[in-house]
Amino acid sequence: MQVLPSKELSPYIKHYLFLESEGDSIKKLRLFSDGNTGMVFCFKGSLISGVQDNNLSYLPCSFIYGQISEFKDLYLANETSLLIVVFQPDGINRLLGISANEIRDKIIRTEDIFGLPGLMLYEKLVGEPNTENKLYLLNTFFLRFFPKHFLSNQLLIQASLNFIIKNKGTITIRQLVKHTGYTERHIERAFNESIGLSPKKFGSIVKLHSFLKILKDKSAQNNITAFCYEAGYFDQSHLIREFRKYTGITPTQYLNDTSRLATNFMEFNSAAMSMSGLYNLSR
Predict the structure, then answer these.
(1) What is the domain range of residue 130?
(2) Are residues 9 and 137 in the same domain?
(3) 33 and 93 within one domain
(4) Whether residue 126 sits in one domain with residue 13
(5) Do 117 and 140 meet the contact criterion of CB atoms below 8 Å apart?
(6) Is residue 149 in a domain?
């Protein structure tokens, strides 16, 4: 279930995502970039990041993740309940003043950023069964960090994001320079600070998700080749190469071998892609 934040928080938080997973086995998930950062609360079960020294490596019950340069595999143990705060591309930077570049590809415990209030938020959320009350707790918590001043690059970043998204990621840095009036070097520096990705990489991710939206809106029986051009790819081989780079699989595997918990968060349902070794170790 996807729920919008309060109107005041919408420039900083894209949505709240509630996910439930049933069963008593370990499931392999893959998370890939959607151009946003996030904050995860795990209320039931456990999230496993992998195996280290023959032991399962568990993720914290609550953590923040930065921009994802490459896809990450995670594992759900048993019945699991997750709540994910999905920030806008520059939301963490604007709301908390944190450099997005410094947390790229990192997982940080919530208390390391928010201290005791972050721990208290988790305890309140895990003890609250009502979804509306959970939303109230979240909105109230984040409104405490509502920024009082604009950041120096805020107007540049917003103009750039709007331009890239409007053009579904099919832009060049030269076009962005012409659109904003800033130098390439200045734009690159602003993107790294505010978003944690270069304009080119962010545009590639927007293009990928434009293609995924087409997949969602059209019948699975459609030939992928028929609409890869619609998303701005040169040809099918270009699409597959870019798709593999960000997801680790092909578009066909994405459609046939996974169940999507969210557009960029999928569960593998193919035996060939399962992680039996991890399952055996945990028994």
Answers:
(1) 2-143
(2) yes
(3) yes
(4) yes
(5) no
(6) no
210 in a structural domain: yes
Rounded to an integer, what distance in angstroms lies between the CA atom of residue 182 and that of residue 175? 11
Tens digit of pLDDT at every position of the chain (283 positions): 899 999 999 999 999 999 887 766 778 889 999 999 999 999 988 888 887 777 888 899 999 999 998 899 988 877 788 999 999 999 999 999 899 999 999 999 999 999 999 999 999 999 999 999 999 999 999 999 988 667 778 899 999 999 999 999 999 999 999 999 999 999 999 999 999 999 999 999 999 999 998 887 765 556 777 778 888 888 889 999 999 999 999 988 888 888 888 889 988 875 445 544 454 444 4
* C-alpha span between 214 and 235 (Å, rounded): 16
Entry pTM: 0.90
Q: What are the b/e assignments for 140-158, b being 16+ CB within 10 Å?
A: ebbeeeeeeeebebbebbe
Cα(43)–Cα(125) distance, integer angstroms: 8
CATH number of the domain that 82 lies in? Answer: 2.60.120
Q: Are residues 212 and 246 in the same domain?
A: yes
Tokens 């946003």 belong to residue: 36
Same domain, 57 and 139: yes
The CA-atom distances, in angstroms, between 107 and each of 146, 147, 174 are 23, 24, 33
The domain total for the chain is: 2
